[in-house]
Amino acid sequence: MGSVVKIQPSRVKQALLVLATPHREAQAKAYIESHGGQLIGIKGDAELDLSLLDAEKHQALIFADDVSLQAVGKKAPGPVVVSFEGNTMVHRLKHGGGKGEQVAKAVGLSKVAADRVISVIDATAGLGRDSLILAALGCHVEMFERNPVVRELLLDGLDRASMSVEVMAIAGRMQLHTEDFISGSGAYEDNSVDVVYLDPMFPDRNKSALVKKEMRVFKQLIGGDEDADQLFDPAFRIAKHRVVVKRPKAAPFLAGKTPSVQIKGKSGRFDIYTKKAF
């Protein structure tokens, strides 16, 4: 049994506490040099107790066997990890059960030939779940994520997926950019990508609605994308066929733009802005 080391609040000077085992220390230091944070090493088989820290002020990014985001404080939810392998959805998608997914319908996969590869930009990738669905269904997906912590989780998930026989082919169709979409969009010509997909974090201030642990941790880390309207114009310029916006059911249209068509679900919807038929 390893020893348990309690992290004292007096030792934590920054909002993001970066923890690293020896074999991941160089990666953690590279992250801090680019994005900031306070490094604390994990020696040997020691376990760290983060329960004494203030959940409203701190979070932990842990570089160990995988890279995880961990809430702190008493009764904190478990770590958030991007894991594409071992995913039950992947198994179902690989065996023909995915064309009925709403995101697949919204992107328009039912309207194109089975042998055609659709190019998609996921401009707000988050944990990459929608990108995974689209890549598993044969799309080539370029992902942008502006939050550096979430981007680090995605990068680690893709690295592990690239070494997994189960999902390496799918991961090969997923490319993660190292900048945010608005900054990176200038490198794309007009009408150069089949579909641009947007799923900005809606600034819902109702804390009782934050049920999933990922959402609780993400809301603390990211908050709402208050500037989400700025995504629409570059997305519409780049898209050849359509822009797809995922929104909560009661949310206003992104940038005040009325969609061409909608796909509605129980708690959310897809607003589709069409430019050219497939």
From TrEMBL:
Gene3D superfamilies: Vaccinia Virus protein VP39. Pfam families: SAM_MT (PF04445). S-adenosyl-L-methionine binds at residues 129-130, 145-146, 199. Its EC number is 2.1.1.242. It is found in: Cytoplasm. It catalyses: guanosine(1516) in 16S rRNA + S-adenosyl-L-methionine = N(2)-methylguanosine(1516) in 16S rRNA + S-adenosyl-L-homocysteine + H(+). Keywords: Cytoplasm, Methyltransferase, rRNA processing, S-adenosyl-L-methionine, Transferase. GO terms for molecular function: methyltransferase activity. Its main location: cytoplasm. InterPro entries: 16SrRNA_methylTrfase_J, SAM-dependent_MTases_sf. One of its GO terms (biological process) is methylation. SUPFAM superfamilies: S-adenosyl-L-methionine-dependent methyltransferases (SSF53335). Specifically methylates the guanosine in position 1516 of 16S rRNA. Belongs to the methyltransferase superfamily. RsmJ family. This is Ribosomal RNA small subunit methyltransferase J.
